[in-house]
Amino acid sequence: MSNSNLFLKSGFLRAPLQNGVGRFVPQLQRIVFKFCKTHGASRGMRDFIEQDLLDFAKQNPNIVVYMKPRRHRSPVIVAEYLNGDRFWMSMHNKTHDEITKWVEVMRTQQGDIAATRLRKLQYTDHPSIQGPWTPFTFKDPELNVASLPDSKYGANDRLPMSATEKLRLMFEQQKLNESDIKTAE
Amino acid sequence: MALTRGIVPFCFKVIKVVPITLQTHNIHRWVAPTLMELKRREKKLGGKKTNPRNTFAEWNLEAELYAFGKRLNEEFNYDTLLQAFTDRSYVVQEEMKQKEMAIDINLKDNKELAEQGEQFIKEYVQVYLETVLPKFPVDGVTSITKNLTNEETLSHISLHLGTKDIILAAEYPVDNYILANTFKAIVGALLQSSGKERTAHFVRDFVITQLQGQDVNEYWPIDDPWSMLTEILRKDGVTIEPRLIGDVGKNTLLACYRVGLYINKKMISSGFGETAATAKEMAAREALKKVFGTEDHMKPINFQLEGIPKPNENNIYQISAS
Amino acid sequence: MSAAKRVQQWATFARTWHIYDCKWQDPYESAHVIKKYLMGLHKPIYHPMNDCGDVVVCINSRDIALRGDEWRKRAYFHHTGYPGGATWTLAWELHNKDPTMIIKKAVYRAIKGNLQRRHTMERLFIYPGEDIPEGVLENVTNQIRQLRLVPTRLDHIPEEVVEKYPKVMEYPEDYVLK
């Protein structure tokens, strides 16, 4: 993280006003094209206005489009969003294609998202499905009534069987078999 | 080419001459004191002034109102919508101006529309919540409705629908009361132009969806959950038994207890707390959530209910919050 | 924060008291087990920056077992800071002086050396025998399992059990037991 990011407003990925839960509201409310009618720097902007702007306005009746010719000044697009963000962008010497792409970006983003540092790349209201862990979660209920220390809970119960124990078990088994044979006879 | 030939030697010269320490971007010494002085003067004049958006050259009220309706996918009557956006303070201000200029144009404010809208929002939200939370007590539903229709929530909705710039008011930026009032008036205007069902869907999509991801129990504070729970269960003829089922660090400041509530030796809920009494109370809260069908893992609230649901009073668990 | 979320947080970060019986246990191996509980590494909520360590009570530290001839060979170094202030204390000497010291030093060495280490060590209680204060014992709600099997001495097994135990062979009658 570079140092400049520390001064950005920080936040989480959230849809404004639960957008999309009920109905979807496009977030770009108005867009202002500022350009010069004669200057070369506004060439791409003029091309965009001549060729694409009417279609853009027709396809997006929810966006108010303003045009502001300014003599011999650099072309600029200002997009205003429903959450109050104002996205200013210089279009100096930008070509028709570049401007088309930037307008598409402004139309589809939900606000000035580049001005926010995301603290995390995901967000949830319910961080756990089973409920958060507590010391009681996987606790053996027997421990509630046990009086500790008790070797029943303290002794190692994962050791392999000792040779002595194995021999003893074999002996027990042998005795059982002998008694079986006797009863069979 | 001639230009580059001219520049290249110059570049080399610059690199040779300039010491490394000066290559970083330096902010001049005069910048900070000047900015401070400018800030001080601005403060002296009464802080930063924001010009109302509707005084800009690039502003067309008619287009804004048209786009407003299109954005929300609703058909508004232009005059009614304009009236909905007209605040009382603006009308007063305009009348004063007109008196000075000796003309008379009649302006209507949004008071009536707001009243109609508020009435509709409150009734509809109440009925809707009673339908989607069928086991939740009436008091609780009323409490949620109150929270959903208070000034704070409605102004937040209003702000995010983009009313802030369009509102005709004496002040700018407008305060929360005017924002909330305008939202109610918009609902009132929609009621006049599109009818009840469409308005109901509008309210559902923008007001009720604010419950998405929220815990509805938090909107209804219960003073004594234990006595409420025992009262409910006494009606069913069941006795409830609290048991201490876990404790941690009993003699410390960070002690934690877990209490489970049992009916016929079956646990129905459990709660934690720094004392056994708190844990018991929290367990009772958990049990009440189960009774009301609003546990943490409840099915999400249905935000897609069509039309206006009919109030059905027989279905609802009536409990007094004593 | 609502009441439900508050108690949830309280419960999640509650400190459990564990008891660990050091009898016949290797202190250096046990230290790595105790460390996990002291630092909260056994919890799913563990994060280096959250304070979720538990409390561990070690009993019977007098009866620890060192491997091989470590009692005689292992030396504990200390320097007073003055010239000629270096001392090397053998493990058996240290254990005679303070029976809790070896386990304490073992756990201290097992924890990574950062600013948190001394605060983590505050949560470790060591008692040489089985007698521990009543208030401490009341807090204990869990027991950490030992690493090694504690052997039972022959003279501690009741005589009937010894008699009944199957024998591989009988000694001859004229065999003289030392």
Q: Any chance you could write out the topology, listing elements then pairs?
A:
The complex is a heterotrimer of chains A (185), B (322) and C (178).
Chain A: E1 9-11, E2 28-35, H1 43-51, H2 53-59, E3 64-69, E4 76-81, E5 86-90, H3 96-108, E6 116-118, H4 151-154, H5 163-184
Parallel strand pairs in A: 1-6, 2-3
Antiparallel strand pairs in A: 2-4, 4-5
Chain B: H1 2-17, H2 31-44, H3 61-71, H4 78-84, H5 88-101, H6 111-132, H7 138-148, H8 151-160, H9 176-194, H10 196-206, H11 225-235, E1 241-248, E2 256-263, E3 266-273, H12 276-292
Antiparallel strand pairs in B: 1-2, 2-3
Helix pairs in contact in B: 4-9, 6-7, 6-9, 8-9, 9-10, 11-12
Chain C: H1 3-12, E1 17-21, H2 27-39, E2 55-59, H3 70-73, E3 75-79, E4 86-90, H4 91-97, H5 101-110, H6 117-121, E5 124-126, H7 134-139, E6 140-143, H8 159-164
Parallel strand pairs in C: 1-2, 1-6, 2-5
Antiparallel strand pairs in C: 3-4
Helix pairs in contact in C: 2-5
Order of helices and strands of chain B: HHHHHHHHHHHEEEH
Q: How many structural domains of chain C?
A: 1
Task: Kindly report the average pLDDT value of chain B.
Answer: 88
Provide the number of structural domains of chain B.
3
Question: How would the global form of chain B be characterised?
Answer: flat
Tertiary shape of chain C: flat
Considering DSSP H and I runs of 4 or more, what fraction of the residues of chain B is helical?
A: 40-55%
**Measured distance between first and last alpha carbons of chain B:** 91 Å
Of all chain pairs, the largest interface belongs to:
A-B, 31 and 37 residues
The secondary-structure element order of chain C is HEHEHEEHHHEHEH
Helix content of chain C: 25-40%
What's the CATH topology label of chain C? Ribosomal Protein L13p, Chain: A
Question: Can you list the strand order of the major beta sheet of chain C?
Answer: 5-2-1-6
- Which second-level CATH architecture of the largest domain in chain B applies? Orthogonal Bundle
Mean pLDDT score of chain C: 94
